[in-house]
Design brief:
This protein is an all-alpha fold and 60 residues long. It contains two helices and no strands. The protein has a domain of 36 residues. 75% of the residues lie in helices and 0% in strands.
């Protein structure tokens, strides 16, 4: 329980959680948070691009 994890172990676990295998019985449950995160990041990128474009136009 108090085991120190290596970077490789942590990376592997992170990949397993972000991209669960179809053979994982919790695949559908694990897939939903990833989809939500992907949508949120896309919205953030859109907002930042819009703000950047607006700031560029207002400077000219």
């Amino acid at each position: 329980m108090n085991e120190i994890e290596t970077l490789e172990q942590v990376t592997r676990e992170g990949r397993r959680r972000l991209q669960p295998s179809v053979t994982d019985p919790h695949w559908l449950v694990l897939r939903k948070p990833r989809a939500i995160l992907k949508d949120c990041l896309a919205k953030i990128i859109q907002i930042r691009c819009y703000a950047l474009c607006f700031a560029t136009l207002s400077v000219q």
